[in-house]
Amino acid sequence: MTVPFRTRFILIEPSHAGNVGAAARAIKTMGFEELVLVRPRWANVLRRQETIERASGANDVLNRARIVETLDEALDGMTHLCATAMTPRDFGPPTRAPREHFAQFVAAAPTEESQGIAFLFGSERYGMKNEDVYRAHVCLSIPTHPRFGSLNLAAALQVIAYEWRQALSARFGGFEIAPATAPSVLADAPQIAGLLTHLEQALVAVDFLDPAAPKKLMPRLNALFNRAQLTQEEVHILRGVAKAMLETAARAKG
Amino acid sequence: MTVPFRTRFILIEPSHAGNVGAAARAIKTMGFEELVLVRPRWANVLRRQETIERASGANDVLNRARIVETLDEALDGMTHLCATAMTPRDFGPPTRAPREHFAQFVAAAPTEESQGIAFLFGSERYGMKNEDVYRAHVCLSIPTHPRFGSLNLAAALQVIAYEWRQALSARFGGFEIAPATAPSVLADAPQIAGLLTHLEQALVAVDFLDPAAPKKLMPRLNALFNRAQLTQEEVHILRGVAKAMLETAARAKG
């Protein structure tokens, strides 16, 4: 299914080249592409060494990034503006946590028409200006420590991009995580019982278990194996151990 | 309720001082405290200028951070180890997405006993060694673009710390987002009707609305106001506008 959202990240007056590069990297890791800079401190920020280093391969995002003079120029095609601001404003859009807002926004979005969603990030030093916040439909606030809420610009963008991707994935399907190793097959109860019998013989053979006074050793091992949810392969390994114990004990007697 | 988890972030052989500082900042924003470095490239990394700059005020995390020689020394008191590794291993712990894993882990955790959860991050260049991954109970994989999955170390830590905090908050209560402005009171239907009547008179007075051929203007405005969910304050403002239109129209006639 095509995702009916065009996503754009807008940095307003970013001052650190490293943050611009890190933002490009964060955007790309989450499968987005569009970056627009409004009045960056460095006119050549997209080509600065620090930017390229911190982008760490997200060169296509940097190459396609636009630099504009006004926020308006950055907003063509955008229909839903999300400000990211630490400080609540006297009035302006409602403040919401990203996860909650994205879930509702994506669930409510009609799939037959495309929307443009823009994430606005203020400058590292001053945050967003009131007049820019007022234009937004929502002010996203990442829940943070009440006395230390200041995320780095690129870190905040990474969290927002991640949450937005998660919300899109929940409705439209998303990135799979790296495939795990081949799924293991759990041992069934008879296989566990067989293992326990085999182990019991081995433990007797090496004189650890006294059959006349077994105490609770075997039930304890049973509980351990149940809790660990042994795989068939692990049962195989442990039975190999039991076999070796029995053989060694036989040699010791002989 | 006391959260029955002690949380620790462990960076194995970090090579960039900036990442150590950014990690400290990320840890603090999410309300955590413990940072341990295993064999960092720079012995004095906790006191380097770049570290302190990027920590941006999270000095207490840096001051309390420990530097150790082996992963074992970093793991005292830790009972659940989460590796973060891009590359799936031939065997080793199951690979899971952080959100899914944390939700299940926190839901299943008994509250009467404290657990130590450690997040292990490999070096920027080489990731985690197999032998370190094998020790972990789970390998966390942040869902990313299939062909560009490499998050910056501190960015990955920020996402993991954020997700872990969100999971803790869901069960034990968490950080509130910055309080919004005073909640506004929605206008009720009679107030909207009163506004529409007032506006209709004003629109007639300024010769925009022809009462003989009103078309669908008022129903359209009604639909717009309903969709916008006007507050009582906004109704007040719009009625002020209507009043001014009527007064101006009266002066224009006089």
Word description of this protein:
Two copies of one chain form a homodimer. By secondary structure, the first copy, chain A, is an alpha/beta fold. The first copy, chain A, contains ten helices and seven strands. The first copy, chain A, has a seven-stranded parallel beta sheet. In chain A, helix 1 (17-29) links the parallel strand 1 and strand 2. In chain A, helix 8 packs parallel to helix 10 (232-253). The mean pLDDT of chain A is 90. The interface between A and B is large, with 51 and 51 residues. Chains A, B: It catalyses: cytidine(32) in tRNA + S-adenosyl-L-methionine = 2'-O-methylcytidine(32) in tRNA + S-adenosyl-L-homocysteine + H(+); uridine(32) in tRNA + S-adenosyl-L-methionine = 2'-O-methyluridine(32) in tRNA + S-adenosyl-L-homocysteine + H(+). Chains A, B: Homodimer. Chains A, B: It comes from Hylemonella gracilis ATCC 19624. Chains A, B: Its EC number is 2.1.1.200.
Features:
Helicase, Ruva Protein, domain 3, 46% helix, Alpha/beta knot, 10 helices, seven-stranded parallel beta sheet, 7 strands, alpha/beta, 2 domains, 254 residues, homodimer
Shape annotation of chain A:
elongated
Unreliable stretches of chain A, pLDDT < 50, 5 or more residues?
A: none
Q: How many distinct helices of chain A?
A: 10
Overall number of domains of chain A: 2
Major sheet details of chain A: 7 strands, parallel
The chain pair with the largest interface is: A-B, 51 and 51 residues
In total, how many beta strands of chain A?
7
Q: Please indicate the percent range of residues of chain A in DSSP E strands (runs of 2 or more).
A: 5-15%
Mean pLDDT level of chain A: 90
CATH superfamily caption of the largest domain in chain A: SPOUT methyltransferase, trefoil knot domain
Determine the structural class of chain A based on helices, strands and strand pairing.
alpha/beta
Taking the alpha carbons of the first and last residues of chain A, their distance comes to 71 Å
- List the helices and strands of chain A in order: EHEHHEHEEHEHEHHHH
